[in-house]
Write a structure and sequence with these properties.
Layout: E1 2-7, H1 28-46, E2 51-54, H2 66-81, E3 86-89, H3 106-110, E4 116-119, E5 123-125, E6 136-140, H4 145-151, H5 159-178, E7 187-192, E8 194-195, E9 213-214, E10 226-230, E11 236-237, E12 246-248, E13 264-272, E14 275-283, E15 288-294, H6 309-319, E16 330-338, H7 347-353, E17 359-367, H8 385-395, H9 400-415
Parallel strand pairs: 1-2, 2-3, 3-4, 6-7, 7-10, 8-9, 10-12, 15-16, 16-17
Antiparallel strand pairs: 1-13, 5-6, 11-12, 13-14
Amino acid sequence: MIKLLHFSDAHIDIASQGKRDPQTGLPIRVLDFLKALDTIIDTAINEKIELVIFSGDAYKDRTPVPTFQREWGKRIMRLSQAEIPTILLVGNHDISPAAGRATALQEFSTLSVPYVHLVTKPDFISSQQLNNLPIQIIAIPWITRSGFLSAHQDDLLKIDEIDTNIESITSQIIDHLMENLDPTLPTILTAHASIHGAVYGAERSIMLGHDIVLPISLVKRKEFDYVALGHIHKAQDLNENDHPHVIYSGSIERVDFGEAKDDKFFVIAEVDKGKSQISWRLLDGRPFIDIPLDLREIYSSENQTIPTPIEIKNHLESTLIDSSEVENAIVRLTLVYPKDWDNLIDDHWFQEHFSSALDFHLVRKPIFSTRLRLGDDGSISNLPHEKLLELYWESQKVAPEEIDTLQLIAKEIIYNQNDPEIIN
């Protein structure tokens, strides 16, 4: 039996903006990702893990700045120094769409780092390559349409035909690699791909482009004893309570508000021929708090006048969560309100209220009033200015007594009653 650790989608530099740590100079959000990565590496070393599989996407793109390469490299080198065989699978954020370009993880191959195996193309990794661990691996990195098209440029395939052909060819590749299997050893499949039936987060800002979705039948073959997947950020088992486990370990930290309610994990698996046991290890990530608020709730059935700034402030104080509950969190408040309330809302008050948060985002969503309808026989050109203005006040739910006052002021302005002098 082999004890392995599986993680994926580190994206350590995806949140490289915002407040910085004064001691390291690094963005605090980057430190969040590195903290999660440290937890994973520490666990691998302290619990005598025999094999580490990283299923792709170390960075946000294939051109990380040297500082982030240094931080990633320091942690992978700890695994190498501990003599733990480590698989680094290339994901869609690690690879260049152009043929022949280096990946973001290329230095591990170029420098022949001991115990670290970089996988940039479909490959079979034997027991002998893993320092004689009694296990074997089929590894499928991210498959690009551009790479497929360049190999089939004379076929003039349509998009749907490309997807079908990629599925077919991927199946053929796996079949071909399986010819190398030792039937006495447990087998792991690791892939960076979208598998049919997987559940995505609510927001997919990090998922680039139109994914090629592979059928689940391709990966849950009985010949496999554990399937280690990357690419989708929500942790899940696509073959729960059956063999083999088909695991997306998910991202190691929350990337956006689509993952606000998702816990983050890595996986420890004990794998033997024909069976495996898994343990989800919870990562202590930065909380994301997403607050939707519709200010139109201030309206009562009897009174629908425009509220005063004080009334809005009082409503916010009674409705929003206490500032102590958002300490060190990433907070987004989505505010829905009528457009004509724009100037009544004090942005500074929100910044003060959520000052204990690590980061606060106010998203204003003003609702524009329904266009004024004058009826079938109504014509704007036939209405006097003061009547048009009166209709406007009514459409904005202004109180009748206020309309009378506003109309008097408007007449003075329109007809210059206080100053009959005409200015050219």
